[in-house]
Sequence to fold (450 residues):
Amino acid sequence: MYISHYDIRMFYKCPMLLYLNKHGPQEEKEIHPIIKKRHKTSPPFLSPEFIKTEIKKTSNLIKKGNDIINQKWMSYNKLSTKIDKLKKINENSIFGPYAYEPIFTRGNIPLRKPLVMEGVFTAYICSKFQDIDLNYFILQREKERERFVFSEELDTLFSDLPRIKKILEDDIDISPDYTRGCRVCEWRIYCRNLAKETADLTLISGIGKRIKKELREIGITDVKELAEADITKISNDFTSKKELTYFKLQAKAIVEKKDIIRKKVVFPKSKIELFVDIEGSSHHNFIWIIGCFIRIEDSVEYRSFLANSPKEEKEMIISFYKFLSELEDEFIIYHFSSAEPQYFKQLTEKYNLQAINLSNVLKNSFDLFPIFKENIILPLYSYTLKEVANWLGFQWHDPLSDGATSIVLFDKWYIEKNKKALQKAISYNSDDCRALIIIKDYLIKNLSDY
Fold:
């Protein structure tokens, strides 16, 4: 059995992902729409015959001394990697008075740990294959070339290789760490169900792999034990007492299946309430919709401000500001993250618009999200808009839709001019805005003194 560069990347992305891709029930996969947009290739079956054939091809090209060699395999001691590009350098190797350095071509992908460790793995094999001393790899992006020199990372790789081998051989017990990054994974539903079965600590909002490990080391292994823990006896070396208090209350709410009120909230008073949700196209780098439910006493109306292309983005924000200026009274903008004020600020600065509109918008913005940590705890595993609103009884028209699906729908409109996809994306935005009304009214009922 060979360990490949693909295995290394998957392990450092998520050990459970590596395990499930190799041994998991494939029928349980549920491909997220956003993943369908990505170009994905399955790892090849690395049989001894395959490796032997590919290595011979690579060796023959190296012996010819070509300046650049593309998409070739190298192997050493049951470790094998496919390298995007090999570039000739002036260093003696077993092939002659020259050697090759490995280059990764990755567009604008940031240099995070999975890519770093894949690079370390590849550079190590590359050095052994040529019998040279190589302690770096090259990351080639669209407009820049970065040289990554490693040292401690190689020790980390060596210490992790036995575990990686056991995972590939199905010779190890492994459980999911359900974190924020799982939300678009094809195994997300399967892993979440596994985590629920074992009451895994990472189900608690804010607990990741590091804090889970620390808690387990002091004997707190699941949600129920955390709910019952005496946090006054827990050292706060790995997190603050404030965070521990929150984690315990979150666990207690889940175990008891009820909300926990911590303190009241002073909500702003205004005749006009605006419930705003903004969506952007990350693929095309512009904001395409500012959705807004306007509530004036018992009257509720949805309005959307659209930009069908980047050229229309400026007119969209100007139209929204004009709409605000025409309101007869002061207004409050309710939203569910810090993103909306940031979007307003970015668009205002980008198009050099009058600052008076921006200052008024920021002054009258009210973020509902922080309340679900400081003021009230719900029996939920995460505090996304959809999770909170669903718990309160609100249902989206399309229950399978989420923010990532919205991106895909808008792309269908932007690229293919699919009008039905655009209407679905607008409908999803409308549901997001309506969900804000449900959440705000619930908070008013439970946390306000008026």
